Amino acid sequence: MNIGLIAHDSKKTLMQNFCIAYRGILSKHNLYATGTTGRLIEEVTNLNIHKYLAGPLGGKQQLGAQIAQNDIDALIFLREPNDPKPHEPDVNDVIRLCDMYNIPMATNLATAELIILAIDRGDLDWREMYR
């Protein structure tokens, strides 16, 4: 499966810890991330991640294009809901794309864990039929 990973600045450490905890599952899949998030995850997990540009430099749009082409099976976007920085990607565009293309998306740790465990059980294997 193709899994997208994005994190606002205040959630990057949380994303790293999430990827450490689920490294065994994530290592079985293709991972895509915005530049800084991907680099930080690679540093602590040694997972192979396809990195786009940094979010504010177009990485969110690159990942969005992959979503629109139905090439992402699940997205984890750990966001800062209260006070995102002006340079951080807007989550609303990505939510809209995921809703349009029926792509499961997590915006918090609890939902991210549910999606990763569902992927590991094979609950999202139906997505592969639609590529």
Automatic annotation (TrEMBL):
Sample GO molecular function, one term: methylglyoxal synthase activity
Q: Where is the MGS-like domain?
A: 1-131
A Pfam family the protein falls into: MGS
| Cellular component GO terms, alphabetical | cytosol
Q: Which SUPFAM superfamilies match?
A: Methylglyoxal synthase-like
Has the keyword Lyase been applied to this entry? yes
The function of this protein is: Catalyzes the formation of methylglyoxal from dihydroxyacetone phosphate.
Cite the source lineage: Bacteria, Bacillati, Bacillota, Clostridia, Lachnospirales
Q: What is this protein called?
A: Methylglyoxal synthase
Regarding protein family, the annotation reads:
Belongs to the methylglyoxal synthase family.
Where does the source fall among the domains of life?
Bacteria
According to its UniProt record, the EC number is: 4.2.3.3
Q: Which reaction does it catalyse?
A: dihydroxyacetone phosphate = methylglyoxal + phosphate
Provide this UniProt record's keywords sorted from A to Z.
Lyase
Residues that hold substrate according to the record: 8, 12, 34-37, 87
Biological process, per Gene Ontology = methylglyoxal biosynthetic process
Gene that this polypeptide is encoded by: mgsA
